[in-house]
Amino acid sequence: MLLTMARSAMAERGLLPDFPPAVLAELRQIQAAPSPQNPPAGDLTDLLWSSIDNDDSRDLDQLTVAEAMAGDEVTVLVAIADVEALVEHGAAIDEHARHNTQSVYTAAKTFPMLPEQLSTDMTSLNPGEERLAVVAEFVVAPDGSVGKADVYPARVRNQVKLTYDGVAQWLDGNGPIPQGIPAVEGLAENLRLQDSVAQRMKGFRRAQGALSLETVEARPVLSGDAVTSLRVEERNRAKEIVENFMVAVNGVTARYLDARGFPSIRRVVHTPKRWDRIVAIAAEHKVRLPAEPDSESLEEFLVGAKVADPVRFPDLSLAVIKLLGAGEYVAEAPGAEATGHFGLAVRDYGHSTAPNRRYTDLVTQRLLKAAIQGAAVPYSLEELEGLAAHCTKTEDAVNKVERQVAKAAAALLLQPRIGERFDALVTGASGKGTWVRLLQVPVEGRLTTGLGGLDVGDRVAVELLSVDAKRGHIDFGRADQQALEE
């Protein structure tokens, strides 16, 4: 049922769930991974590269390694899979990727942007395989700021594939050292260095106003066609290694293109238009924010709110995220004043780290390789403007598909529990409706009765009234407290 729904939802929004015959025919002509000698690239295969990703990830886009330097500086290297070497600009595979613009991750199935033979094999940075990569190298100062940087092609080899949960538990002292690390001399120490420098970078970014937002994200767990549970995705130290390094790389690559007179696609989040509502929410928490948008003040409020009430903090974060507004892609001419990313508190922010699963990143990789080689710019500014608008629009369609299937999965999970009562938090209250998130099960639904006097952040007892899995609807009614206690 979920798979049928996912395919239907994609088709309704103009996305292609299947690869057309032209793509499959073209794929058959690609026999192997690109030769590591063509084009020429430096040999970095002996470095202590490793990948850190989700347990089920098969399209490995990035590897990381760090090197300690004098004066407490650290050089960080991030290798990005060279997808451009096999995906020709304008070919059938490229056109399909351009149409969908990204991989679609649903509870039923992942619909990859590129055929799996490419994304999980020939371009994926799989353990033990020599691969071509575009490497971003940058120096991190003792205060966590990013200094001298460069971008260049190289041959790399992943020493071991690691998972976020395994690495995080080990770093926190709550689990054993992940399998594979002890077999690579020096890798354990290198990962601890990466963790240390990532925390240093995190501290610097937060001091600049990068926002500490944390929402509840749940992934449906399936056994065959049945939804058995919802797994909450939590932040951890391993994810922060990758997050902080990728933010840095996206700044490094954007500035690299600009310095060489190349246009680029940037990811921007504008200064929030609804800052007044954010100010009002902070006032409800007895915190006064300035009248004009200020990310540093907002970050200070968020940090304090998490300490004061960690249970409700994800819902506060969600409210702030909605008020900040959605991000979008824009094309930027070289030398232009960057719009920046309000939530990350950075001016220069491209997308370059996931060319296997995001088309903007593949476009950026083509620009980077042309700049490295001193070749002509492969896209005009006008072409990039069209691509940026298309990718923004399609990203919205992809998000709607993923949410629709996730809601359907949650509805299937709750179907046997109609009539039960739960503690919940109000996550939305407006003329369009009142929404609540259950505390026991990370599921959101609409409150259809007993709406009076409720606002975002209020705690309320609710009863599950009905579900409609096909439409992804979950309806609750307000339950009186005396009945809940009985």
Description:
There is one protein chain. The radius of gyration is 23 Å and the shape is globular. It starts with a helix and ends with a helix. The protein is 36% helix and 23% strand. It has 486 residues and is of the alpha+beta class. It folds into 3 domains: 335 residues, no CATH class; 50 residues, no CATH class; 68 residues, Beta Barrel (OB fold (Dihydrolipoamide Acetyltransferase, E2P)).
Pick out the low-confidence regions.
Answer: 482-486
Structural class: alpha+beta
Strand order of the largest sheet: 1-8-7-4-3
How many strands? Answer: 18
DSSP summary: helix tally? 13
Major sheet, described briefly? 5 strands, mixed
Fraction of residues in H or I helices: 25-40%
Gross morphology is globular
- Structurally, the number of domains stands at 3
Report the sheet-strand fraction. 15-25%
Gyration radius (Cα, Å) is 23 Å
Average pLDDT metric: 89
State the separation between the terminal residues, measured CA to CA.
37 Å
